[in-house]
Specification:
about 15% strand; seven-stranded parallel beta sheet; alpha/beta; globular; NAD(P)-bd_dom_sf; binds NADP nicotinamide-adenine-dinucleotide phosphate; about 260 residues
């Protein structure tokens, strides 16, 4: 059976950059994004230019039924998943009291329930194709408790903790679990505009998704547990480990 790398949220941003990186490595791909996302165009481009097999599914992964449907359709195609990259995610930036509850309930589904369920659905594929692997896309927001990113940061902290535990459980099966925690990236138009307003070290920490994807794929291939793309982000992590809590709280509260 042919083996594939499954990437969710592959139509744009970081997911698209990861798909390109894997295509360059001549890896067969299963790509997923929401309907009418341009995913089919990307899929044809990758097939034509890299001579790899690409399966594309436009499906809303926010429900359990749709995740199960995706699994069934992949099996119907006779594909077996060796690597899973849980990248699809919903971002947010705003005061909790102003957030729409339907938005954050959906966000919790897409950022937490969906990656968890997809890993469960494909666990036999990972075992059959070992050495195999799972990469969960978290965020630097999982380490810093930022105002305006309460629900988002909480979902990403879940992924970090879940992945670290799962890594220990799946190691005996030769299934490697990694987590990537990117800092700011120029992905959506909104983020590109926001990032341009930054200055100093914050601005220099911003990466293009292509740069972050190259570092991520390289370190995931080496089996690294927690991947932090970018030198400045590593500096932030170092400062986080040495600064007293009171100072960190004052600095992060400024984000309000
Ligand atoms: N950008 C950053 O600064 C940053 C920083 C740290 C971590 N991250 C994480 O990196 C990941 C990618 O971020 P990004 O900035 O590249 O995001 P993005 O440009 O908004 O892309 C999100 C991707 O997820 C897909 N998606 C969203 N909801 C979905 C659903 N219900 N079902 C199926 N697919 C869905 C989108 O499909 P459509 O194109 O069809 O909408 C799109 O392909 C996320 O997990 C994010 O939390 C991003």
């Amino acid at each position: 059976m042919k083996t594939y790398t499954l990437i969710t949220g592959a139509s744009r941003g970081f997911g698209k950059a990861l798909a390109l990186e894997y295509a360059k490595k001549q890896t067969n791909l299963v790509l997923v994004a929401l309907p009418n996302s341009g995913l089919l165009l990307l899929s044809n481009f990758l097939k034509d230019n890299f001579k790899i097999d690409v399966l594309a599914f436009e499906i809303d992964l926010s429900s359990k039924e749709n995740c199960i449907q995706l699994y069934s359709e992949i099996k119907r195609e006779g594909a077996s998943v060796k690597y899973l990259i849980n990248n699809a995610g919903m971002l947010s930036n705003g005061l909790f009291e102003n957030m729409d509850e339907d938005y954050f309930l959906n966000q919790i589904n897409v950022n937490v329930s969906t990656p968890t369920l997809l890993i469960k659905l494909f666990i036999d594929d990972f075992k059959a194709n070992a050495p195999s692997g799972i990469l969960n896309v978290s965020s630097m927001a999982s380490f810093f408790h930022l105002p305006k990113k309460q629900v988002y940061g909480g979902t990403k902290a879940y992924l970090l903790s879940f992945s670290k535990s799962l890594r220990k459980e799946l190691k005996p099966y030769n299934i490697s679990v990694s987590i990537v925690c990117p800092g700011g990236m120029n992905t959506t138009t909104n983020l590109c505009l926001q990032n341009r307003t930054l200055s100093g070290i914050s601005r220099s920490s911003i990466l293009n998704p292509e740069e972050a994807a190259k570092i991520t794929v390289d370190q995931f291939t080496k089996g690294k547990e927690v991947i932090i793309p970018g030198k400045m982000n590593k500096v932030f992590m170092f400062l986080n480990s040495i600064l007293p809590t009171g100072i960190k709280n004052r600095l992060t509260s400024n984000a309000i």
